[in-house]
């Protein structure tokens, strides 16, 4: 079990309380602290299974998780954000799904809004043909959705289980992303490598969301999210699909710039897109490596892309 912490205060203690009361307790809980300056590490219970790693500086969600992955030798790796509070049988349900679906590499939780549990915070991640990303069923009433296990594009890493070997095979998280969309990028690379992802409908967590980054539309979230959607598209969209869908990707990025500019965040959204363009040579080099190793067919990737009418842009 890996928890990446950066100034998460009281939510970290609440998260640990939920983990320590699981029907199948995690054998080891790795808390990767990204140089927190608050008191979030004070009051953590002294338990043999809790291992605090002080990283000394903020490596981002991607970097901290990669450091943790290097310390793990288990078959499965569970990731949990400090602001995600799992039901008592969360670990048990994820492990049962992993046993039942041996060909699946990544397992998503059903996330409910912590302050309004009758609403869904996410049921896995969706990837649109334009390259935009969002949490599936975000904002839907829980009573209105079909609660079944189902194939999804990728898990939201706020609460997910992965087969360690699969993560190792694709190289873990891309640390250039720092945070935001890094889990979708990872999920895309798993898909290209021939792996599947599954929503486990009865593995439930309550999720606050963006507790450490100032909220869904903070400058920090907008910058990293909207820079990284460009990089994820360039790296991962395979073959002819890249070129066919590129005009739509460009159009939606222009629409995103207009949207956030009208919302008063013109400087941050322009900075995000300019830095995305500056990073394209490096991402293109990564693309060549990823696509040369691709196992999934273009048709298989096309099948799992979201093709619905694009909603207003947001960052998950």
Describe the structure in your own words:
With 316 residues, this protein is α/β, with parallel strands linked by helices. It folds into two domains: 2-207, Alpha-Beta Complex (Spore Coat Polysaccharide Biosynthesis Protein SpsA, Chain A); 219-304. It has ten helices and twelve strands. The chain has helices at residues 9-19, 60-69, 90-100, 164-170, 182-192, 219-236, 239-262, 266-278, 280-292, 298-304; strands at residues 2-5, 29-33, 50-54, 76-80, 84-86, 104-113, 120-122, 125-127, 133-135, 150-152, 159-163, 196-207. The strands form three sheets. Strands 4, 5, 6, 7, 10, 11 and 12 form a seven-stranded mixed beta sheet that branches. Strands 1-2-3 form a three-stranded parallel beta sheet, covered by helices on one side. Helix 5 packs parallel to helix 6, helix 6 packs antiparallel against helix 7 and helix 6 runs parallel beside helix 8 (266-278). The longest helix has 24 residues, at 239-262. The model is unreliable at 312-316 (pLDDT under 50).
């Amino acid at each position: 079990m890996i928890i990446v912490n950066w100034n998460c205060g009281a939510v970290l203690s609440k998260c640990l309380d939920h983990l320590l009361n699981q029907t199948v307790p995690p054998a080891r809980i790795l808390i990767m602290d990204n140089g927190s300056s608050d008191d979030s590490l004070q009051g953590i219970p002294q338990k043999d299974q809790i291992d605090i790693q002080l990283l000394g500086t903020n490596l981002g969600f991607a970097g901290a998780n990669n450091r943790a992955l290097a310390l793990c030798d288990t078959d499965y790796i569970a990731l949990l954000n400090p602001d995600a509070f799992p039901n008592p049988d969360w670990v048990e349900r994820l492990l049962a799904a992993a046993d039942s679906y041996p060909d699946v590499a990544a397992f998503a939780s059903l996330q409910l809004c912590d302050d309004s549990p009758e609403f869904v915070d996410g049921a896995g991640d969706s990837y649109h043909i334009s390259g935009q990303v969002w949490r599936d069923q975000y904002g839907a009433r829980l009573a209105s959705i079909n609660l079944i296990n189902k194939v999804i594009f990728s898990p939201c890493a706020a609460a997910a289980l992965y087969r360690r070997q699969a993560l190792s095979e694709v190289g873990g998280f891309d640390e250039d992303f720092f945070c935001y969309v890094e889990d979708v990028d990872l999920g895309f690379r798993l898909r290209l490598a021939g792996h599947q992802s599954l929503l486990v409908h009865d593995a439930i967590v309550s999720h606050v969301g963006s507790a450490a980054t100032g909220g869904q539309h903070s400058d920090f979230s907008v910058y990293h999210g909207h820079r990284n959607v460009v990089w994820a598209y360039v790296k991962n969209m395979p073959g002819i699909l890249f070129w066919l869908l590129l005009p739509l990707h460009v159009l939606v990025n222009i629409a995103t710039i207009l949207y956030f500019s009208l919302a008063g965040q013109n400087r941050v959204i322009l900075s995000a897109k300019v830095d995305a363009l500056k990073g394209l040579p490096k991402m293109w080099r990564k693309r060549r490596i990823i696509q040369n190793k691709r196992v999934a067919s273009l048709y298989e990737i096309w099948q799992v892309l979201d093709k619905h009418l694009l909603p207003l842009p947001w960052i998950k």
